[in-house]
Specification:
This protein is of the alpha+beta class. The chain has helices at 5-32, 57-75, 83-90, 97-112, 122-127, 140-149, 176-190, 285-298, 300-309, and strands at residues 35-43, 46-54, 92-94, 156-158, 161-163, 195-200, 203-207, 216-221, 231-237, 241-246, 251-254, 257-260, 275-282, 315-320, 325-328, 335-337, 343-345. The chain is 36% helix and 26% strand. The chain has a 9-stranded mixed β-sheet with strand order 1-2-6-7-10-13-14-15-17. Strands 3-5-4 form a 3-stranded antiparallel β-sheet. β14 and β15 form a beta hairpin. The protein binds adenosine-5'-diphosphate (ADP) and magnesium ion. Adenosine-5'-diphosphate is lined by residues 117-119, 121, 125, 130, 171, 173-174, 177, 203, 245, 249-250, 261-263, 265, 289, 292-293, 297.
């Protein structure tokens, strides 16, 4: 094909510089690739941190942060304009679809755990002062009355309408952070991130592996330690949520007795058994969070039996009050104990 003079000129003067500019832009975006961006924030009553590695990591993390703030304002029991407050006030409310979705998941986990996880524990939490930090041991009669209202079966979800019974109040605090970490991972993925670590106050979820290709390592706190830096072991994880419930997270003492923020829905009393902490490992962040609370309520034997029946859904590390560790076989290879050899849970 023979080009005219003006055609050649066009290619030389306009097209070539345009092509060069495009190539340069391409190189530029290559140079931008794999920024490592982290942000810390305070939300849902806890310190959170998000670290993402990839192109546009900053934009991805900023989008995740604004979603965390949005979910916090929907789900917070302490915020009068949240969906949860509307449900607790009016017993039925038209909610955001995420609130309805989380309520649905809460009811599922309630059923799965035979009520050890119960999203209608709020009246009991309030009596103990866990909701406003005005901690107190309630009067027995008042506690029995509050405990009598707790029944996850009465929670109804119909489209985006969420309802509870006339005397009930709900609290999704036992799964909100796991749901949120799962959502954060989704958003980071949508932004092209393939490596991330999301830590919502000790509720950790990982995306892919570390930038060096090795799996992420998540420390498990020593329940008897003085601070979050005292670790009893660590688990490696790729594309998994690693969520721990422990009595040390929020508690108060009165007359030499300790009362923790996880309650047994059947009695209304803070869970008090042979467990000091429960770590649940699962690809499903919401489930992992709900199960960490539920297994803590169950105690060691029931928790281990529950794992045997549902080993397809999750793995776990149980730490009893004597400091003994129990690790389910699915993650035995990924777990390192910093103290004694753990007991292996097998099917
Ligand atoms: P954290 O939020 O401190 O990580 P958990 O995930 O175990 O700990 O959730 C504890 C929260 O869950 C409590 O603050 C309360 O809002 C709620 N909760 C307490 N006991 C139960 C229970 N048995 N079932 C469902 N939710 C519970
Ligand atoms: Mg939980």
């Amino acid at each position: 094909m023979k080009r005219s003079k003006s055609e050649k000129r066009f290619i030389k003067v306009l097209l070539l510089p345009a092509l060069l500019a495009l190539a340069a832009a391409g190189l530029c975006s290559c140079a931008q690739r794999n920024t490592d961006y982290s942000e810390d924030l305070f939300a849902m009553d806890t310190v959170m941190s998000i670290r993402a590695i990839g192109p546009d990591a900053e934009e991805a993390v900023k989008a995740a942060v604004s979603e965390i703030r949005r979910l916090d304002s929907l789900l917070s029991t302490g915020n009068d304009s949240s969906d949860i407050s509307a449900i607790n006030r009016n017993k039925t409310a038209q909610t955001d679809q995420d609130t309805a979705l989380l309520a649905f998941r809460a009811k599922e986990i309630y059923r799965l755990t035979g009520g050890a996880f119960d999203p209608t524990v709020y009246p009991v939490m309030r009596l103990w002062g866990f909701t406003d930090r005005n901690y107190q041991v309630p009067e027995e009669e008042a506690l029995q009355a509050a405990a009598a209202t707790v029944n996850g079966e009465s929670l109804q979800i119909d489209g985006n309408t969420v309802s509870v019974a006339a005397d009930q109040e709900m609290d999704l605090g036992g799964i909100a952070k796991g749901f949120t970490s799962a959502r954060v991972i989704e958003i980071l993925k949508q932004h092209g991130i393939t490596s991330a670590l999301v830590n919502l106050g000790g509720n950790v979820q990982t995306l892919g592996s570390r930038p060096d290709g090795k799996p992420w390592t998540i420390g498990i706190r020593d329940p008897k330690g003085d601070s979050a830096e005292d670790l009893i072991g660590a688990v490696t994880a790729v594309d998994l949520a690693v969520i721990t419930s422990g009595g040390y997270e929020r508690f108060f003492e009165e007359d030499g007795k300790t009362y923790i923020h996880i309650v047994d829905p059947k009695t209304g009393y803070p869970a008090e058994n042979d467990l000091a902490s429960v770590t649940v490992v699962s690809p499903d962040g919401t489930l992992a969070d709900g199960l960490s609370t539920a297994l803590y309520v169950m105690g060691r034997e029931k928790a281990a039996a529950f794992w045997k029946d549902h080993s397809d859904l999750f793995d776990c590390v149980l730490i009893d009050t004597g400091g003994r560790l129990y690790v389910s076989e699915g993650i035995a290879e990924d777990f390192t104990s910093f103290t004694e050899e753990p007991v292996l849970l097998t099917k």
